[in-house]
Amino acid sequence: MPDNEIAANRSTLKEFFASVATIRGDLSNITAPPFVLSTSSTVELPQHWASRPNVFATPTLAQTPEERMMKVVRWWLSSLRGQQYAGRDPAEGVKKPLNAVLGEVFVAQWGSSGDAEEGTTFLVSEQVSHHPPVTACRVWNDRVGVEAEGFTRQEITLAGGGVNIRQMGYALFSLRNWGETYLIPLPDVKVKGVLTGTPYPELGGHYQIVCTSGWAASVDFSGKGFLGLGGGGRKHGFEAKVYREGEEGRPVYSLSGNWDAEFTITDERTGRDVETFDVAREPAVEATTLPLEQQDPYETGRVWKGVREALNRGDMQGVSDAKNVLEEGQREMRKVEEREGRQWQRLFFRDVGEDSVGVDLMRRVGGEWKPEQTVGVWKFDLRAWEEKRRPYRGGLRPDNEMGGAMGNDTANGFATSQRSPASGKAQAVNGLSNEPLSDRSTPSTATSANDKVLPPIPAQIQQQEAQDAKLADGLGEMSLEEQAAVEEMLRDQYSSRRSKKR
Question: Of 23, 276, 328, 386, which alpha carbon lies 20 to 30 A from 156's?
Answer without folding.
Answer: 328
